[in-house]
Write a structure and sequence with these properties.
single chain, about 725 residues, Cytochrome Bc1 Complex, Chain A, domain 1, 3 domains, 6-stranded mixed β-sheet, 23 helices
Length: about 725
């Protein structure tokens, strides 16, 4: 599922759209019946806010059910704030902040987190740069000390600066230049969609502008934006509130608020004056692609909710309009999708198609335009509307399962709206969307006169690779940055402030695992957890690619793929619709030694999700037409993958290491083995390997052992080897 929301909701929000089931664990209805969803509440985030005298905002939420804590620092600076001629600078700066401070040598954050079983990372987006850690709760004080130290005293010398700049340039080469569609989505789409706004520049920048940056630029950027009144500290997990407040006061409160103002940066993107078309060429484009885009709204705009639901109807899941039309029915596209990019100051919605082998961008453009016109010309159905809402709300639940998920949700709400309660209103806003609202925003924004068409084609002798736009003007300039402050240096060890010692360990709250077998030999494990009303199940079989028949790599993978593509009583579209109406995630995948079939859904509809999963496992049809579709899609996917060095290495390394042994063959199959597979191959593999006596069913989430036993008996109790 795509994440389009700040993943949270208000306390009274319910999973709406379809009538509630009577018993929570009722059997799934026939495919033609209305799915059920209702009664699941999405609780509020519940963060406490305080503001320090230096302007830094602090948000905290205690959760005693975990033994961990997350610390996040969000700075209101992103790639839109890159100075003119310095695109990619905010992202480069993110890398530099993992180096030394006056009290900590380089890479200390890794030692403070990874060495104690935690993690740390960061990201840069258009409007924000955020740094985050997850550690055992007794290490909280150490992380607060470290985050305050790097806010107040960045240490960067010329050697470190040049080294990290080279790292970012290599990232550019890998993510943008080596990826078949990196140029399209990373460079050409934003520079075409936006005409005036700095969102038109790529967040990763360009080699030339990265080379133009200097160490003095770095120091001035830090002095301009990395200051307490431009930062938000978010802490969630197991802590003592009074103790936390004391540490925040000790480490962050002394940081000074600079008197220099931050540069103004609030460009208004102009309204489109007519349709535009751009064609770009690039090396290493295995399949042509086309994107249609429209300027829409910024995140805070009231129309965002309706556009979000519209996007769900358009492209989420295999029952979506784009997938059903372009991929499943017409088979003209290898991949389709849409993305509603609502940023702080502007937004757009883009729909794309990566064409199937032999298809043209003109065919893709026409097919995309048909689906967009349908949204304008006729209301979406009640079933489509309910399905999109259910998916969005269920996805919001999944996005709140961990302390770091909840902290990230809050951080993004604050960046996008400046309002901590915005995330707690989102689900109600989504649920209020009507079919008329969807049609209204389609007619308002997704019109032919506002359409931007981007064609992406392989370069050849007649069409040289297109160049990235460079030296794009921006409201922030190097001259407008604050003067560099005193240059910080790593102090001699004897002069450094000492890192705090870890506190007393917090015992992890691990669930008691129930372990039993059904009469048919199926082993069942249950790990109940407190928290959100979500339940997951995973059914594991000893059926991996190592068990592929000799000379037929890809059988296990294709068997797993075909499980969701039809049973004895349901077609592939009916299965996709049933999954998405429940707001469930149901699927399968094969590894080297095993196949996993999984289901995740809100508790009130989980019984139906498990019943559907059981039908996929026990009664797959392996229909010839579905096999041919999957073969075609797999071959198109291999064409794309094998245009990338990493994928080529992945296909080859097994043979190098294991030779002709089972682990040597690529699990996904090869361009030669996939066309040769028959439905009899998958049927025989399934009959031999998918047996209850060889399987383990694992439940986790909001489920008791008694409930899990009843569910397992209902779905699998009469299954026999």
């Amino acid at each position: 599922m795509k994440n389009r929301l700040i993943l949270t909701a208000c306390a009274s929000a319910l999973l709406l759209g379809l009538p509630a089931a009577a018993p929570a664990w009722a059997k799934a209805p026939p495919a033609s019946a209305t799915a059920v969803q209702g009664g699941v509440q999405v609780p509020p985030l519940g963060f406490h806010k305080r503001v320090l005298a230096n302007g830094m905002e602090v948000y905290t939420a205690r959760d005693a059910s975990t033994s961990n804590v997350t610390v996040q620092v969000w700075y209101r600076v992103g790639s839109k704030d890159d100075p003119a001629g310095r695109s990619g600078f905010a992202h480069l700066f993110e890398h530099l902040l993992f180096k030394a401070t006056k009290n900590m040598p380089s890479e200390t954050f890794d030692r403070l987190t990874e060495d104690v079983g935690g993690m740390n990372n960061a990201f840069t987006a258009d409007d924000v740069t955020a740094y985050y850690e997850v550690v055992p709760a007794n290490h909280l004080q150490r992380i607060l000390f470290a985050e305050a130290d790097r806010m107040g005293s960045l240490v960067v010398d010329q050697k470190t600066f040049e080294s990290e700049r080279d790292v970012v340039k290599e990232e550019y080469r890998q993510r943008i230049l080596a990826s078949p569609y990196g140029r399209l989505f990373g460079l050409f789409a934003p520079e075409t969609i936006y005409q005036d706004h700095p969102y038109r520049r790529p967040g990763i920048g360009s080699i030339e502008e990265l080379d133009a940056s200097t160490l003095d630029d770095v120091l001035r950027f830090h002095a301009t934006y990395y200051r307490p009144d431009n930062a938000m500290l978010i802490v969630a997990g197991n802590f003592d509130q009074a103790q936390l407040d004391g540490w925040v006061d000790e480490y962050f409160a002394p940081l000074k608020r600079p008197s220099t103002p931050m540069p103004a940066n609030d460009v208004k993107e102009p309204e489109p004056t007519g349709p535009r078309t751009a064609t770009f060429y690039a090396p290493n484009v295995p399949l042509p692609a086309v994107t249609l885009a429209w300027n829409t709204v910024a995140y805070k705009d009231a129309d965002r909710a309706a556009l979000t639901v519209l996007d769900g109807i358009l492209s989420t899941g295999e029952s979506s309009r784009l997938y059903r039309s372009l991929v499943y029915d017409k088979q003209i596209a290898a991949s389709v999708g849409s993305n509603p990019d609502f940023a702080q100051q502007a937004g757009n919605l883009a729909a794309y198609a990566i064409m199937a082998d032999g298809q043209t961008v003109e065919t893709g453009k026409a097919a995309l335009e048909v689906e967009i016109a349908r949204l304008r010309d006729e209301p979406v159905t009640a079933a489509e509307l309910a399905e999109a809402k259910n998916e969005l709300v269920a996805d919001a639940l999944r996005g709140r399962e961990s302390i770091d998920d909840r902290a990230t949700t809050l951080g993004m709400a604050l960046i996008m709206t400046g309002d901590a309660t915005a995330a707690d209103r989102e689900i109600a806003e989504i649920q209020a969307v009507t079919a008329a609202d969807v049609q209204r925003v389609a007619r308002r924004y997704l019109t032919p006169q506002r359409q931007i068409t981007i064609n992406y084609l392989p370069a050849d002798d007649a069409n040289a690779p297109s160049e990235q736009k460079k030296n794009v003007d921006a409201p922030v300039t190097v001259a407008s940055l604050a003067p560099a402050g005193p240059v910080a240096v790593l102090l001699p060890e004897a002069q450094r402030a000492r890192l705090p010692e870890p506190g007393p360990e917090v015992s992890p709250a691990t669930p008691s695992i129930a372990d039993f077998r059904l009469d048919n030999g199926l082993r069942v494990l249950v790990a109940p957890t407190n928290g959100l009303p979500l339940v997951s199940a995973r059914l594991n079989f000893n059926a991996g690619s190592a068990h592929d028949p000799a000379g037929k790599p890809g059988v296990a993978s294709m068997t797993a793929n075909l499980l969701t593509q039809g049973t004895k009583t349901k077609s592939a579209p009916e299965i996709a619709t049933a999954i998405e109406q429940l707001g469930a995630n149901i699927g399968a995948g094969a590894g080297a030694d095993f196949t996993n079939v999984y289901a995740n859904a809100p508790k009130d509809v989980f019984g139906q999700a498990l019943t559907l999963m059981a039908d996929l496992v026990r009664n797959p049809a392996f229909a010839q037409e579905e096999l041919e579709r999957q073969q075609s899609q797999t071959l198109d996917g291999l064409r794309v993958a094998l245009s990338q060095p990493g994928a080529i290495a992945g296909q080859s390394v097994g043979r190098v290491m294991y030779g002709a042994a089972p682990y040597g063959a690529p699990g996904s199959g090869t361009v030669n083995s996939i066309p040769a597979l028959t439905r009899q191959d998958m049927a025989a593999f399934h009959a031999e390997r998918f047996r209850p006596s060889q399987a383990t069913l694992v439940f986790s989430g909001d489920v008791t052992p008694a409930e899990a036993r009843a569910l397992a008996d209902q779905a699998f109790g009469d299954w026999r080897d």
